[in-house]
Amino acid sequence: MASSPVSRVVYNGKRSGGPRSPGTGSEIFTPAHEENVRFIYEAWQCVERDLRSQMGSERGLVEEYVEKMPNPSLKAFKPVDLGDLKRRNTQDAKKS
C-alpha cells in the first residue's frame, strides 16, 4: 500500500449471516435499526477476517483507496477525536 496523506481502507466483500442485536434492555430498537447494526457488525467481521487471512498475501478483498486528485479545500483538514469531543460536550453540559 502506498503511503499518502489522503487514503482510507475500502471493503469490497459481501455480507454473511449471523444476527446480532444491540441489547441493553432499557432501549427499544426498530427492526430497521437492528438490521443496520447487524449489517455493519457482519461487514466489519468480514473485514477483520479478510485482514487476518491477507497477512502475507499480496492482494485480497481489502485494499487501500487513495484519491488521485485530492480535494484542495480539504488540505487543512484535521481529524477529530470523537471520544475527546464527546467528553468535552458532556463536561460543558454538566457546567450549564
TrEMBL record:
Residues 81-96 have a biased composition (Basic and acidic residues). This is Mapk-regulated corepressor-interacting protein 1. Belongs to the MCRIP family. Keywords: Cytoplasm, Nucleus. Residues 1-28, 76-96 are annotated as: Disordered. It is found in: Cytoplasm, Stress granule; Nucleus. InterPro entries: MCRIP (IPR029428).
